[in-house]
Amino acid sequence: MTALDAVEIDIDQNEFFTLLGPSGCGKTTLLRLIAGFELPSSGTIALQGEDITALPPHRRPVNTVFQSYALFPHMTVAENIGFGLRMLGKSKAEIGTVTERMLALVQLEALAGRRTDQLSGGQQQRVALARALAPAPRVLLLDEPLAALDLKLRKSMQLELKSLQAETGITFIFVTHDQEEALTMSDRIAVMKAGRILQVGNPRQIYDRPEHRFVADFIGDINILEATVLEARDGVATVRLKDGTKVSAGTAAGAAPTGEVAIAIRPENLRLAGEGESATITGTLENLVYFGAASNLHLRLPTGEDLVVRVPGTFAEGRYTPGASLGVSFQPELTRVLA
């Protein structure tokens, strides 16, 4: 089995870099290669110009925070944080100073003497982070460390992690399958599938300008409509939808798509046509789903394709009923052509 296939990537110093993809795509394998827990069958791993491919894990200036945290239950919080420093042979005074600084960084000073099995999930996660940061590694690897937390705590810890990375200046390489988590914290994201990196970019590039159908479909909600390219130049393509409608849509930089393609449109980038306004396409309302800040209108197009339009939460209340015919328009610059 090929776990990673021709992966080549550069990660900047002091960057919060996220490996994002579904289970089995190779993101954890890539993290383990960087940590030294696995060896590549070919290629090299370099850290600031130094080839570390053959170095064992304990000799790499890299630390890992695991999903299970792997804390020592018989030790106190302070002893857990200082463990790595003791293994490095640091003096008791230095261990004490660094441990105090780490406790303050993760706001656990009051719990320094408590055993880790007496802590909540969020507190254990902070201890694991502090223990990994204490030896001042050049790179911190995080293997889905928030997966076991409840939703509200997970969102809080996302902001804390980003703040910690900015404060320490250490390069964070974060593994997750949660798209919202990646968009919230990352400076850049690498989207992976079947052992390959499909696209690397900042959150806005990944969300607004996907270069592959998988990336568009995996990141957030999106509408995919089949189309045929009629003409493409200067970053814009004219395409014909299945019902014969001609529309314009943006293309990836340097791309000149031809033949059968798809166009991708985010639900929030679609607009319901008002009375008397012309619409790009028309569909029949099948369902309306309210989820607080927004509502999703699920339309069925004459071609049999589905289309979701997102509107403010209370906008559609009492205004539309299933079976209604609704016109929809969209802007070419907010639409992407995907092969």
TrEMBL record:
<dbReference type="InterPro" id="IPR017871">
    <property type="entry name" value="ABC_transporter-like_CS"/>
</dbReference>
<feature type="domain" description="ABC transporter">
    <location>
        <begin position="1"/>
        <end position="219"/>
    </location>
</feature>
<keyword id="KW-1003">Cell membrane</keyword>
<dbReference type="Pfam" id="PF08402">
    <property type="entry name" value="TOBE_2"/>
</dbReference>
<keyword id="KW-1278">Translocase</keyword>
<keyword id="KW-0813">Transport</keyword>
<keyword id="KW-0067">ATP-binding</keyword>
<comment type="subunit">
    <text>The complex is composed of two ATP-binding proteins (PotA), two transmembrane proteins (PotB and PotC) and a solute-binding protein (PotD).</text>
</comment>
<keyword id="KW-0472">Membrane</keyword>
<dbReference type="InterPro" id="IPR003593">
    <property type="entry name" value="AAA+_ATPase"/>
</dbReference>
<dbReference type="Pfam" id="PF00005">
    <property type="entry name" value="ABC_tran"/>
</dbReference>
<dbReference type="InterPro" id="IPR005893">
    <property type="entry name" value="PotA-like"/>
</dbReference>
<dbReference type="InterPro" id="IPR013611">
    <property type="entry name" value="Transp-assoc_OB_typ2"/>
</dbReference>
<protein>
    <recommendedName>
        <fullName>Spermidine/putrescine import ATP-binding protein PotA</fullName>
        <ecNumber>7.6.2.11</ecNumber>
    </recommendedName>
</protein>
<comment type="similarity">
    <text>Belongs to the ABC transporter superfamily. Spermidine/putrescine importer (TC 3.A.1.11.1) family.</text>
</comment>
<keyword id="KW-0547">Nucleotide-binding</keyword>
<dbReference type="InterPro" id="IPR003439">
    <property type="entry name" value="ABC_transporter-like_ATP-bd"/>
</dbReference>
<dbReference type="InterPro" id="IPR050093">
    <property type="entry name" value="ABC_SmlMolc_Importer"/>
</dbReference>
<comment type="function">
    <text>Part of the ABC transporter complex PotABCD involved in spermidine/putrescine import. Responsible for energy coupling to the transport system.</text>
</comment>
<dbReference type="GO" id="GO:0005524">
    <property type="term" value="F:ATP binding"/>
</dbReference>
